[in-house]
Structures are given as C-alpha cells and as structure tokens.
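User: Could you go from structure to sequence for me? I need the amino acid at each position, not a summary. Structure tokens:
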C-alpha cells in the first residue's frame, strides 16, 4: 500500500472535523468484505475497522469531502442587452443642447439689436409729412407753397376746410371726378369760395389708407407753416 504523506492526512482530518464527520481510522482503508467463508450472515460490513469507526464511514467520506467544500463560483451577471438602434453614437448631451440653441440664438440676436434701435414711432404730423412728400408735393409744392394745385401752407387748407371731416372727404375723392367750376369748401372763405379749376387731383381713398389720409390732413392743417 502506498504511504500517504502525513500532511495530507492532517489536511483530511481537519477537513473532516470541519464537516462534523468523525475522524477516519488513521487513513487506513476500511476492511473489505470478509472472504466468503463467513457467509452473508457474518458480513463484516458493519464491523468496526481498526480505528473503531464504522466501516461505512470511510467509504462515504471521500465522496462527501469531494462534494461539500467546493464553493459555488458565482458567475458575473451578463451585461444587459442593448438593441443596436439605441446605440446611435450621439452623445446624450446633444439633444438638450440642440433644444436650447434657438433660445440662445434669440437672446443673442436680441442683445445685438436692443429695442432702442428699432424704428422710432412717428407722430401723426411726422407720418403725414412722409405721405405728403410722396403723394401731394408734386402738385402742391414741397412746402405746400402751391403748384398745379393751390397753396396749402400758412393755414390756407384750414381756411378752405374749417371742418376736418370735409378736408378728409376732399382728399378721399380729389377733384378729378368733379366738373370745372364746381364750388367746394367753406362758402364764407376769406377771398371767396374755391372752385374746381383743373379737375386734376386724384382720389386717394384706396391708394392711401384711412390712417395715412388722416395723417396727411393733419400735416396740411398743422404741419405746413
Ligand atoms: C395731380 C396733382 C395733385 C395731386 C397729386 C394732389 N393734388 Fe390736391 N389739388 C390739386 C388741384 C388741381 C387742386 C384744386 C382743385 C382743382 O382745380 O382741381 C387741389 C386741391 C387740393 C385741396 C384744396 C385746397 C384749397 O384750398 O382749395 C386740398 C386740401 C388738397 N388738394 C390736398 C391734397 C393732398 C392731401 C394730396 C396728396 C395726398 C393732394 N392734394 C395731391 C392737385 C393735386
């Protein structure tokens, strides 16, 4: 029989003690079944071995020892499955940054163009002066001094139309549809009531807005000095 080294026996004893098994009989193999002469009745299977240990114990010991001490090796959990579509390669911060970009651009442009730089709001006389320069000055003169049409500056227009509504009505229709010689405006006007002489002033209702006509009338009455 091969000699088992003492350190292996010692290890076995410690292992058995740790497992709560009785110590084996000195490492000796259990007594084999007795040779046939004793017959079945005298089978020594249960007979104690030399060490006083039941014969069954050593037989089961190696198996138990082999099974028990193996620590269960925990497999690391598999990484979660990510569908390929989710891995776009676009960093997570791109979406919020893109969402904020228009707001930033709006604030940036607003900072470049402060509201004070916007077009100034014109008074009715200032707006009327622009309408006059474009639509009326060719016939009435740049300063309303008169031309093809009569003089409007110096309060002349107010003398013809003391009432603003009549002034507006005149600009709406002009004189182009009136017969020459038709009187218009204040009959008691100093110097006599005016009459249509040229019948050449166009009707401005439609080509100018009501607000533009109102403004140019205001300019003629109060802006032309
Ligand atoms: C194409 C020339 C012409 C243009 C343009 C013109 N007018 Fe006249 N306007 C006249 C003529 C001419 C008269 C005098 C009536 C006539 O003889 O037909 C007149 C008369 C007037 C009168 C009456 C003045 C008075 O005391 O008798 C007013 C007010 C007037 N125009 C305002 C305007 C305004 C406002 C505009 C511009 C929006 C304008 N006109 C553009 C030719 C013009």
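Assistant: Here is the amino acid at each position, in order:
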């Amino acid at each position: 029989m091969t000699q088992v080294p003492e350190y292996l026996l010692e290890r076995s004893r410690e292992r058995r003690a740790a497992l709560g098994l009785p110590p084996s009989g000195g490492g000796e193999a259990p007594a084999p079944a007795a040779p046939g002469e004793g017959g079945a009745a005298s089978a020594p299977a249960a007979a104690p071995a030399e060490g006083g240990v039941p014969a069954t114990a050593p037989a089961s010991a190696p198996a138990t020892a082999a099974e028990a001490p193996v620590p269960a090796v925990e497999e690391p959990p598999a990484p979660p499955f990510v569908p390929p579509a989710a891995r776009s390669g676009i960093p997570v911060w791109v979406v919020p940054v893109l969402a904020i970009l228009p707001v930033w651009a709006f604030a940036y442009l607003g900072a470049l163009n402060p509201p004070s730089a916007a077009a100034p709001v014109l008074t009715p006389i200032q707006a009327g002066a622009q309408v006059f320069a474009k639509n009326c000055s060719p016939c009435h003169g740049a300063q309303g001094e008169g031309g093809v049409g009569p003089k409007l500056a110096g309060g002349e227009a107010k003398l013809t139309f003391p009432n603003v509504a009549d002034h507006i009505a005149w600009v709406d229709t002009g004189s182009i549809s009136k017969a020459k010689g038709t009187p218009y405006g204040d009959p008691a006007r100093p110097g006599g009531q005016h009459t249509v002489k040229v019948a050449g002033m166009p009707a401005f209702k439609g080509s100018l807005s009501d607000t533009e006509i109102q403004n140019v009338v205001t300019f003629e009455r109060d802006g032309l000095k």
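One structural detail worth keeping in mind: The chain has a mean pLDDT of 82.
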